[in-house]
Structures are given as C-alpha cells and as structure tokens.
Amino acid sequence: MTAALRIIARRSAAALSALALLLGPPGAALAQPLQDNAYTIDLFQGPILAPLRVTGIAGAYAGYAEGIAGMVANAAAPALREPFSMRWFEWDVAASISLPIELFENNDFDNSGDIDLDYSNFVYLTLGGQLQAGDFGVGVNAELQRYSLTDEAGAETTVVIGKYHFLGGVRLLGDALVLGAGARAVTLNLGAEQTDLTIAGISPELGVLVRPDWASYRLGATFRFPVNGGGLLGEGVVMDGKVRRAGGLILPNEVVLPWELEVGLAVQVGPRPLNPAWIDPHVQERELREAVARRQAAREERRERELGAIHDPEERARRERVFAMERARERAADERELAAGPAVLEAERRARYWNWPREHLLITAELLVTGPVSNGVSLERFLAQKQPGSEHGPSAVGTSGAHVSFSPRFGIETEPIPGRVHTRFGSYYEPNRFGRLGGGRVGRQHFTFGADVRVLSTTFWGLVPDTALTLQASMDFAPRYDSVSAGIGVWH
Asked: Where is the signal peptide (predicted)?
C-alpha cells in the first residue's frame, strides 16, 4: 500500500511539474534563449524620450502638434501655423541634447523587473527643421539615442538608434484642417571592437489636425506604418556555424518599429486664444494694394466730375495743371505707403500676437496604440546577452511585442507667472510589452513635470530679431525609473 502511494505521489508530482511548465511562471514554457538569428528587436519605447515640451505633458501632444516638436507626435505638424508665425515664408530649426540624470539609481528602462545594466552614458539628441510657405510646410526631425554598455570583461558595446521623420503638409479650409504625410525611418548602429554595423528601414506615416479658427479645442491623429529594417551594412559580422554574430552578440533577422496610432485632444481655457486665425501676409498686402487702387480711382472720379462741370476752357486747363501736380504728390505718397506696407503690416501682426493675454490652461489627452512584433526581443534584453547575472536569464525570443499595447496620456500646461515662467504636468501609463512571456509584469504609471524660465533677450549681434531665451527642464518618474533633463529654448 505504501509503495502504491509512493508511485501515485511521484506520478502526481510529475504531472504538476509538467502543468507548471505549461502554466507558470508566465513565459517559462514558451520563452527561448537566443540561439540563432530567428528573432526581432522590438523598438517599442516605453518611457517617453522626446523634446522637453512633449515630455513635460507626458507625450500627450498629437492633438496640439505645434512646432518642430510636433513632428514626433503628428505628421501634420509641418503645415500648422503657430500663433507667432508672422511671415508668408517661415523657417525654423531646433536642437537639444538631453543627458538624463538618474537620481535614485532606478534604471529598469524596459519594465522587465530587473535594474538594467550601465546606461550612465545614455544620451538623447534631437535636431529638426521646417520650412513653411503659405498653406504648405515641410519638415525633417531626427532623434538619436545612444546607449553604452560595458560587460564584466571590460569590453564596451554601443548602440545608437536613429528615428527620423520626413514630412510635408497642407492647410485646408483656412486653418480648420491640416493634413500631413511622409516617411518614418529607423537606423540601428552597433559598435564594438572590430564591429561597425547598421540596420535601416523606412515606411509611410499620415497625420491630420482639426483646429477651427478661434475655437478652444483641437483634434489630432496620426498613423505610422511599421518600419522593418533587415539589411546589414558595415563590417564585423562573423559566422558561428549558421549563426551571425557581431561584438559578441547574436544578431537579429531584423529590427522593427511597430505600427502606431496616436489620437489626441487639446482644450484651452482662459483669455488666451488657442486657435487664432492666421493672417496671410500676401493676402494682407494684396488688400493694401487694392485699397490704394480704390482710393486712386475715387480721386480720379472726383476730378473727372469737377472738370466736367467747368465750361471755361482756360479754367479747365488751369484745374488740369493743378490736378497733375496733385497726382504727382499722391502717387509719391502711395508709393511710399506701398513700399513701407510689408514692414508696417508685419509690425501690426507682431503687436497683435504680443498683445494677447497670456493667462491660459491647456489640457491635452491622447491614446497611443502600438502594434505587436513577432518573435520580439526588447533592446535591453538584446544587449544583455553577455550579462549572465540577469534575474530572468539571457535574452529570450518572444519576450517583447506579444500583443497590441495601449498607452493613455494626459497633460496640463499653464503660465503661473505671465511672461516669465511656463509649467507643465502630466501622467501616462507605460503598458506591459512582455505579455504572458514577461514573468507576470504589469504596466506602470509615469508622472512628468516640466518648466521654462525666461532669462534674457538677445539679437545675437544683430543677426536675428530680438529673441527671448529660456532655461528648460523636464522630469519623468515611475517605479524603477527616473529621468531629469535640461535644455535651452526660445520663449514665445
């Protein structure tokens, strides 16, 4: 009887062990360590890395979409005229570099549950420019993220991820509708001893913004198709049997920026307008020319009536000589008015902008939906291949991009000291990207803060109009993650 019980117990334990392998812990049965190149790096970005203004309001920028920063959130941004846009042809450039400061040594960037390896050399750089001509606009924006890791043997591996937007847009129905389209590209550069490799890919993206003149709201949406990069450029690939390696890492078949749908809303309360009608300088100057022409025609009509009432030939001749001198004086005055017109009208448009009240409360909200990636591995797990001390072991196929992810976001922006201090606050949910292969991880809530402080004005030795500069900062805090960045901007 005792022997039979032992047999039953052993068989029950075996059955329970098999069931445990199938059901738990999540991912134990299905996740496979990297053994070959049949996997994909999922370039899903959980914590927000973006221009400081976007970070300050938790990335909820698709429904606002102003400026070069707007290109990372809405493909229609290049054609959107900002309230301080005064000229028919405008150009702008922007650049910033952020060196996130880890205050509490919380660096679980991918929310895997493990504190990531040495990311102290992390750098985020953004550079962008845009041109606007009337109803049309084009823009280019580049974001570079550099990661540096040193393994136990002292060997360094660097990874530079580049994300690029090449966009064009048009304003329709006045300012009420802005459409944009273009391409999103990605590059991943891997550098190590005797290794310099780049993987690249490109795909389309589309955007729309609805902003009725003088309304207090905006609606925006953008869709980005997935970007698949598979070709290897450079040197350093070695074959280990049938496995391609570089820098001691098993290389992926491809890297993927998953598809994204970003839908947002912006509402502003207070006396400051959110959607002032943009004044087209060409239209305004044409109206000035037409007004001068009407005035000239009215003067000539008056003279013709006066001459028609004079029957004495000598008196009519005398009046014609007087009218000729008047015409010369009036023509000179009209030409001076027309010559000075563009500058005078621009000064009026500038005064119109600066005379608006500054008190406002901007509220933004959005939902970012990110598509799945097959056989995905996060960037952090990819880099951890040479780090055997990780709690969950080496990188595993299928531990990232298991399903569609949803990230709701909310932000508030205001100016507590008008003309001097601009503040931002926001919160966003970072979804669990690992699914049931991620050891039961759940998403985490982030809280963001940002501020601009106006410090000085300069013309850069007369090279540009008087420009006010600001000191900027943004912060992002979440469980096992914190980031503080600083920069310099222009006050508007």
From this structure: 1-31
Q: Among candidates 365, 430, 428, 414, which has minimal Cα distance to 109?
A: 430
Q: Where are the domains of the chain?
A: 40-276+358-451, 281-354
- pLDDT tens-digit series, residues 247-295: 777 888 888 999 999 999 999 999 999 999 999 999 999 999 999 999 9
Q: What is the pLDDT of residue 401?
A: 86
Comparing CA positions, the residue from 99, 103, 188, 140 lying closest to residue 473 is 99
CB burial of 56-91 (b: ≥16 within 10 Å; e: otherwise) equals bbbbbbbbbbbbbbbbbbbbbbbbbbbbebbebebe
pTM summary value: 0.82
CB hemisphere CA count around 234 (13 angstroms): 20
Say which CATH architecture domain 40-276+358-451 belongs to.
Beta Barrel (2.40)
Element (H, E) at 250: strand 249-250
- Using alpha carbons, select from 422, 375, 424, 427 the residue that is nearest to residue 399: 375
Q: Which amino acid is at 316?
A: R
Inter-axis angle of helices 313-354 and 281-308, nearest 10 = 160
* Other C-beta atoms lying within 10 Å of the C-beta of residue 429: 19
Helix (H, G, I), strand (E, B) or coil at 368: strand
